[in-house]
């Protein structure tokens, strides 16, 4: 299990993304940190679910650019990850 510090190092924490840019967001609550299971956007001073437009009800600690999703059941060849 990744430590809080190690997880934060994988995310941008010193600025917000460009308005409307879809990103992966890292949130934190009393249990710990977790990656939100949906794409997020930061616009007009608020984090929102990129698909529904709903305001995120969690404290977002950081963000990173979206990573390509691996296709279910297909694993990259060793050395090509």
Automatic annotation (TrEMBL):
<protein>
    <submittedName>
        <fullName>Uncharacterized protein</fullName>
    </submittedName>
</protein>
């Amino acid at each position: 299990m990744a430590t809080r510090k190690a997880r934060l190092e994988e995310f941008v924490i010193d600025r917000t993304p460009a308005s409307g840019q879809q990103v992966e967001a890292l949130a934190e609550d009393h249990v710990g940190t977790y990656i939100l299971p949906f794409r997020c956007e930061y616009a007009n001073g608020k984090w929102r679910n990129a698909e529904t437009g709903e305001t995120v009800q969690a404290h977002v600690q950081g963000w990173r650019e979206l990573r390509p999703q691996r296709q279910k059941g297909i694993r990259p060849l060793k050395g090509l990850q």
